[in-house]
Amino acid sequence: MAEELVSVVIPVRNEAASIEATIESIVAQDYPGRIEIVVADGLSDDGTREILEGLSAKHEGFRYVDSPTGRTPNGLNLAIHASRGDIIVRCDGHAELPPDYVRTAVAVLNETGAVNVGGRQHAVGVGWMQRAIAYAMTSRIGVGDARFHYGGKAGPVDTVYLGVFRREPLFAAGLFDEELTRNQDYELNIRLRANGGVVWFDPRLEVVYRPRSSLRRLGLQYFQYGNWKRRVIRMHPASTRLRQLIPPLFVIGLLASLVLAFTPWRLFALPIPCLYLVLLGAGTAAQLWRTRDAAALAMPAAVATMHVAWGVGFLMGAQEQVGTTAGRGRNP
Questions:
Q1: pLDDT at 329 over 50
Q2: How many helices (H) and strands (E) does the chain have?
Q3: What does the mean pLDDT of the chain come to?
Q4: Cα–Cα distance between 12 and 33 in angstroms, integer?
Q5: Coarse DSSP helix, strand, coil percentages of the chain, rounded to the nearest 5 percent
Q6: What CATH fold (topology level) applies to the domain 6-126+144-211?
Q7: Can you tell me whether residue 11 is helix, strand or coil?
Q8: Sign (positive or negative) of CA dihedral 58, 64, 68, 72
Q9: Cα–Cα–Cα angle for 330, 331, 332, rounded to 5 degrees
Q10: H helices present in 34-174, as ranges
Q11: pLDDT of res. 2
Q12: Contact at 8 Å (CB) between 308 and 276?
């Protein structure tokens, strides 16, 4: 039986520093069938477009389309519409796929009957702070029970990192919601599962992810995650998970502790921050033991930044209209 055509779709904007390595990692895949690459460029102005032009001349089956808004879900949908494969592989402009990624993903799709498969977002840092942030993003104390952050057994899950999709169920679900700046992958997986599909995690599908390298940028990222998660929960209340409610409850608890600290009941201000410090200390000690890397000493700052920023973002919530159908219901 002939191998299925695979389309790798990549939304980019100003990825000059990494896009060539990303494309070369796709060209180097050991998948025995054909692979086409479709990049949606969000009007980059850092030299990305010139690199894409060079790659288009260099590699057969590579092309790019314009994405005027520069937003991730719009770019993904444009690239998907421009693609021809029965299997759609989502990739990011700063990711590098291991050589067996496509072959393994296609095999898992066929073996499980899933409509979307994916694996682990393996956060790897280079500098001292980036390594600390990577440790925070791969620890249970930092990210809870989301398997795509730290690994685990293969099986059905709520969501996966990136994703490798069957074309027909993807279009039946309506593609990515173009009104969601963040969390559009999680929301799409809700609709795929609502249509009877299975989203499957396989730990062999591991992609290196370079996290933010400063607490300021990490805080902004997680504020946006929490902000848009609130909107997705308003759209799909049944999708709510305990891990998503813990950060906003923690922020509320901290604010209550702060108020109590200036009242006669100030002793009641101690339990929440003290318990949190104990948990941070235990998680840091465990990471130090595993890695023998002094950068783990900064992990508490990274974890606290993630939790507080996510919780504040969630409590504020994205205010745009909920329940639109932008980006959905398009036919192949």
A1: no
A2: 13, 8
A3: 90
A4: 25
A5: 50, 15, 35
A6: Spore Coat Polysaccharide Biosynthesis Protein SpsA; Chain A (3.90.550)
A7: strand
A8: negative
A9: 125
A10: 48-58, 72-82, 101-112, 128-137, 140-143, 147-150, 167-173
A11: 65
A12: no
Which residue in the block uniquely carries the two structure tokens 């070369």?
A: 24
Torsion 174-175-179-185 (CA) sign: positive
Average pLDDT on 119-148 reads 85
Is residue 183 within 8 Å of 232, Cβ to Cβ?
Answer: yes
Look at residue 26 and tell me whether its pLDDT is greater than 90. yes
Amino acid at residue number 297:
L
Classify residue 282 by burial, with Cβ atoms within 10 Å: 0-12, 13-18, 19+. exposed
Reported as a single tens digit per residue, the pLDDT across 214-233 is 999 999 999 999 999 999 99
Instruction: Find the distance separating the first CA and the last CA of the chain, reported in whole Å.
Output: 24
Segment (H or E) for 89: strand 87-90
DSSP letter for each residue of 233-263: HHH-GGG--HHHHHHHHHHHHHHHHHHHTTS
Model pLDDT for residues 268-286, shown as the tens digit of each residue: 899 999 999 999 999 999 9
Residue with tokens 């390594």: 131
| pLDDT (tens digit per residue) in 149-208 | 666 789 999 999 999 999 999 999 999 999 998 899 999 999 999 999 999 999 999 888
Signed CA dihedral, 247, 188, 75, 93: sign only: positive
Q: Identify the DSSP state of 46.
A: S
Question: Of 140, 144, 134, 29, whose CA–CA distance to 91 is shortest?
Answer: 29
CA angle 25, 157, 304 (to 5 degrees): 80
